[in-house]
Design a protein that fits this description.
The protein folds into two domains: about 270 residues, Aldehyde Dehydrogenase, Chain A, domain 1 (3-Layer(aba) Sandwich), CATH 3.40.605; about 180 residues, Aldehyde Dehydrogenase, Chain A, domain 2. Helices cover about 40% and strands about 20% of the residues.
């Protein structure tokens, strides 16, 4: 891809269009401050157009009908094929737009998105109902039907993956969608729109509207013709989404913030693997991950050696421009987020947490024009530090010591969040015991940060509700209708009311 300012357009009703207002926004590369592209700054009028198109497509075509499931599956497979055909272009675009590393995006994110579309292609004709054993000479059936027009509003940290997570199951279930990418990282969604269009998506089935979250998101949440909103983002914004959607009683799926515990017991003998997974669990995507293992609990018997090795390896993490294949940690998404992280680092210092490594903005050499922060580790002797309780969403790890199982379970659960967690032990009974006790939607045993299209992803408590991924996500995009059929020819029941 040649570096030059490109112009992108929204995708509404099968057409690539500018915003009704004609206004645009700019995408700036977080690693070097260069403008990559411009894209439409949509508003209420654009949302109205997109929703009308989606409603028309749902109500006046066969898209949502059961017999069209093969067509839906075929479309999703073609989208998956189109993504794989353009892996290099999509990966480079996403790196420049988000600050992520080319290694992560090209080897993980884009492939994962293609696989997601393919996975739901195979589920499109596997939406089953159920015969219910109602007493009497009766046939009672529960059938699953699509909701109608759905909306998705997502964060900026995994752009191409989020698009797949939301669009694929929504379409597989027979709905139409208005998709709102983050204004920080809209480009891969707009590039995906071209792939969707070339795959032959019917007009209005997929609509992608770009612009400020406070405008587009609000319009989607309050629109009376949208039946459901799927949101991925912070808990704070999630609360606002719930309030805005309440006026029209929309169905909601919420994947929100996290402050995930990563627990290392002393009976886990492969400390090298545990340290490596701790690094992956926190510093992948520069810590800008909702499931980041930001609270690392290590048993006191192995704590000192573990800490020494952890700090040594953190100091070796190459931080740099995402287009450099040697970089293992890229830039923070923007200056505001970078400042927020640095402020929390200063808060940690002031409150008495011990800074073991990092803690500064990187400014020298190739980092001068970007938003880079050193991989950072704090040693925390209790759980009341702000940095232990608050989601930082950056490369800041809180390392803590624990004595026994019951203590660490209590501490791990002492949070408003409940998105993910991990347990490292060679004792299978302990692994199951602790995983059952942790109040989190995801528990990894002797692993971290592994997500699968086949497995549900979503949180407990203020980390949200509902699931992305797996067959369980299809439940979020369907509704159940009960059909009661009286089989008895005797009309005595009816006659009793005459």
């Amino acid at each position: 891809m040649t570096r030059g300012i490109k112009q992108y357009r929204m995708y509404i009703d099968g057409e690539f269009v500018d915003a009704v207002s004609g206004e645009t926004m700019s995408s700036v590369c977080p690693a070097d401050g260069e403008i990559i592209a411009t894209f439409p700054k949509g508003g209420q009028a654009d949302v109205d157009k997109a929703v009308r198109a989606a409603k028309e497509a749902f109500e006046n075509t066969n898209w949502g009908n059961t017999h069209a499931s093969d067509n839906r599956g075929d479309l999703l497979r073609k989208i998956a094929f189109g993504i794989r055909e353009q892996i290099d272009e999509l990966a480079e675009l996403e790196v420049l737009d988000s600050g992520k590393t080319i290694t992560d995006v090209s080897l993980v994110d884009v492939h994962y998105a293609a696989d997601c579309f393919e996975y739901y292609a195979n589920l499109a004709n596997q939406i089953y109902g159920e015969v219910i054993p109602v007493p009497g000479d009766v046939l009672d059936i529960a059938v699953r039907e699509p909701l109608g027009v759905c909306a998705a509003i997502v964060a900026w940290n995994y752009p191409i993956m989020f698009a797949a997570w939301k669009i694929a199951p929504c379409l597989a279930a027979g709905n139409t969608i208005v998709y709102k990418p983050s204004s920080e990282t809209s480009l891969s969604a707009l590039a995906l729109a071209k792939i969707i269009d070339e795959a032959g998506a019917p007009k209005g089935v997929v609509n992608i509207v770009t612009g400020p979250g406070g405008v587009i998101g609000k319009a989607l949440c309050e629109h009376p013709d949208i039946e459901k909103v799927s949101f991925t983002g912070s808990t704070e914004v999630g609360r606002q989404v719930m309030q805005m959607a309440a006026s029209t009683m929309k169905k909601l799926t919420m994947e929100l913030g996290g402050k995930s515990p990563n627990i290392i017991f002393d009976d886990f003998t492969n400390q090298e693997a545990a340290v490596g997974a701790a690094l992956l669990g926190l510093y992948f995507n520069a810590g800008q991950t909702c499931v980041a293992g930001s609270r690392l609990y290590v048993h006191e018997n192995i704590y000192d050696n573990f800490k020494k090795e952890l700090v040594r390896r953190v100091g070796l993490i190459p931080v740099g421009h995402g287009m450099d294949w040697d970089s293992r940690m890229g830039a923070i998404i923007n200056e505001s987020q970078m400042r927020s992280i640095l402020d929390l680092i200063e808060t940690g210092k002031k409150e008495g947490a011990k800074l073991l490594i990092g803690g500064n903005r990187l400014m020298e050499g190739g980092h001068a024009k970007g938003f880079f922060i050193e991989p950072t580790v704090f040693e925390c002797d209790h759980d009341d530090y702000t940095i232990v309780k608050k989601e930082i969403f950056g490369p800041v790890l809180c390392l803590m010591k624990f004595k026994d199982e019951q203590e660490v379970i209590k501490r791990a659960n002492n949070t408003i969040y409940g998105l993910a967690s991990a347990v490292w032990t060679n004792d299978i009974k302990r692994a199951f015991r602790v995983s059952k006790a942790l109040k989190a939607g995801q528990v990894w045993i002797n692993q971290y940060l592994v997500l699968s299209n086949f497995a549900p992803h979503g949180g407990y408590k203020q980390s949200g509700f509902g699931k992305d991924l797996s067959k369980y996500a299809m439940d979020n995009y369907t509704q159940i209708k009960n059909i009661y059929i009286e089989l008895c020819s005797d009309d005595s029941y009816i006659s009793t009311f005459e």
